[in-house]
Structures are given as structure tokens and as C-alpha cells.
Amino acid sequence: MLLGRPVAVLGGVRIPFCRQNTAYADVGNLGMSVRTLGALVEKFGLHGQQLGEVAMGAVIKHSSDWNLGREAALSSGLSPLTPGITLQRACGTSLDSIITIGNKIAAGQIESGIGGGSDTTSDVPIVYGRALRRRLLAANAAKTPKDKLAAFKGFRLRELKPDFPGVAEPRTGKSMGEHCEDMAKEWNIARDSQDELAVASHHKLAAAYERGFFDDLVVSFRGVSRDNILRPDTSLAKLATLKPAFDKVSGRGTLTAANSTPLTDGASACLLASDEWAATHGHEVLCHIRDAHVSAVDFVHGEGLLMAPTVAVAEMLARNNLTLQDFDIYEIHEAFAAQVLCTLRAWESEDYCRTRLGLDAPLGRIDPAKLNPVGSSLAAGHPFAATGARVVATAAKQLKERGGGRALISICTAGGMGVVAILER
């Protein structure tokens, strides 16, 4: 559990998430982060105020983004005396940044702070190969024109071939989608079940927008006011026409472009504080962070790449003397519909819970009506480092609407890790 003072979630803001190479193609992480932090400052009247820390992160970023948290904070409207830190843990980045700020508040090191993240798959860092990079560095270091030219002796046109950021796991060579296909086969997750979850995510997100749930959570940017991935009219019939996206040859592929999250750009952030700071500044506490946890699996030697949340949740529940059924909301990040369904099936499996989680009985089934009640990543999109803060802000507002309760947050990440948390009101 988070030891020390209670950590309050006061709320969050995000820009609409947009499909790769659409509205935010030329913005980049800093621009998206500045818009999001600025909107959060505006929402809570923080202009000129000094907070304890701003923690931001990005997964796909240029070398110039090395100080992203501080640079975004300096352009946000906060006091320039507010420090900034830049973090990264793949898809768990902004949940980790929230945990980092929360732990500092709990320890009494700071009174308030912001955790968030941004990601772009449109403005990706494209670099030249090692040979040309060495030549350019040598030329830059050379003192005379002759020495600069000498750095290019033996140059070949093939050295101009650029290197693009890889999406495969370095230790397996497989993409996340290929790994998830393996999981779907291992757990016998049917294509129909995946499509049903994807359709439900779109319909729930669309309904939440229509009733105004996101009016104070999503701020317009670049002429976009809603996630442009959202398809309110999608149906099982439409999804059934799509071909497999990752396993295209075996005839057993079940993951498609529709039941997998698309490459997405976006940013999100949450304001956290001690109860005392919130009261002094006149802000309502939406909920508190009760606990958070991170686990990993050995995906290189056979475990499912995205199964780490099953372990993290089990360990966190045990530490808090809670059962899987002791929650009113389950916010499980939908990297792929199959990944969510594998997670749920694993928690219901007596064998998995006994042999992998070391439990005497299965964690059991959750109520489907409590799963991602206002939609999730399949409908909103998944800018890697922005998803965690989106989920926290969404869950916190749902707890406020309910008047109380408990939310379980679960996010799988590249590298076989899972970041999870418990929110309470």
C-alpha cells in the first residue's frame, strides 16, 4: 500500500486522441504536452502557481524531448519554479508518472503535482545508419575543411538508407500483435469474442460523449473535439469483414485492425495532491490512490507478453486483503481485445491461478457490466505514454458520479510488464 499521507486525485484533462498521420501529424510530443498541461492549469486555476513536480513521459520521442517534463511545465502557465521530470515505461508511462508523484506526496516530499504523458507515432525519430552517423560526427569535430571532407572518404549511397523506430520486441523479434496472437491461441480466444468487445468499447465511448461525460475531461485541439478513431456506428457485421492483421498465413489469425488499437497520437495529465493542499486551494477530491504495483513476466521463455497484469493484480490484491470482486469499476487497458479476454480468462483459471499466481483458488470472474463502462483504448486510441493518465482521470470521475466505490486499473506494457493501481472514493 502507499504508506504515509493519503494521495488525492483531483482530476485530469486530455486532448482528443487521433489516428497516426491525421490532426497531430506535425505537432510532436512537446506541443501536445503543452496543450494538455495548459488545459489542466486552466481547469484548476493554477496560473503562476508553484507545484511540487510535473512528471511527464513519452515512448516514441526525439532526442530533443529528453527534458520533456520540464519544458512542457515551463510552457504550461505554471510558475517556472515548478520542477519537471521525464519518465518512460512503455504503455504504462503516465500511470507510472502518476505513481511517482503520488509516492512523493505520500512521503511528504511535495504537496501537489501533475503526472501525465504524450506520444506521437506520426512525428517519429528517423535516423541514418551507424556508418553515416559516425561520418557526420567526425566531420563536425574536424577543425579544417580538408579534415571535414576526409570524414566522407569511401562514402556509399547505401549509407543514406534511414533507420526507423522498431515495433518488435528486441529479444524475440515479434511485434506486440504477433505476441498477442500467440496468447489468443493459447487461451482459445475466439474472433467473435474479440469483435464483440471492440464494438462494445466504441458504443460505450460514444454514449459517454453523448451524455457529456467527457465535457470536462477532453479539450479540443487542432480543430478536433472527439477522438477521431471513435466509430459510433460500428457493428459486428462490419468487423467480421476484416482480415487478420498479424497472423495472415496460418488461417487461425484472429487479431484484426478493428479489435487491436491503432497507432495513435495524444496526451493526457492528472492533478494529484495531499488532502490538505486540495482543501486549502478549494479543490474537490475525486478519489484517493490506495495502492499501485508493477510486475513482469518471462515472455522470452514462453509466458504471454501481455500477461503481466494478471500477476501484478494478484500481488496487489493480496497486499490489500482484497478479492477481485471487491471493485465497482474495472479499467483494463484494451491494447488488444484478445489481451483483455486472456487476462479475464486467466483470472478464472484454477490451473493458472494455482501454478503461476500461487493461489489456492481462482481469482474468479468479474461482472462484465463493470468493465470499462465508458469505453477504452479500442475506441479512444492508445498513444502509448498517454493511456495511463486517461484511465486514471476517467476512473476518478466515474467514482465521483457513483458517489463512492473502488476502481481497479490495469495496464499491460511492452517488455512483458504490467502496471496496476487501486483508486477509492
From TrEMBL:
UniProt EC number: 2.3.1.9
Enzyme kind, highest EC tier: transferase
Pfam family, one: Thiolase_N
Keyword match Transferase: yes
Keyword Zinc included in the entry's annotation: no
Any one GO MF annotation of this record: acetyl-CoA C-acetyltransferase activity
Domain of life: Bacteria
InterPro entries cross-referenced by the UniProt entry: 3-ketoacyl-CoA_Thiolase (IPR050521), Thiolase (IPR002155), Thiolase-like (IPR016039), Thiolase_C (IPR020617), Thiolase_N (IPR020616)
Domain Thiolase N-terminal: 7-275
Record domain Thiolase C-terminal: where: 286-425
Keywords (A to Z) from UniProt: Acyltransferase, Transferase
Signal peptide: none
UniProt similarity note: Belongs to the thiolase-like superfamily. Thiolase family.
Protein name as catalogued: Acetyl-CoA C-acetyltransferase
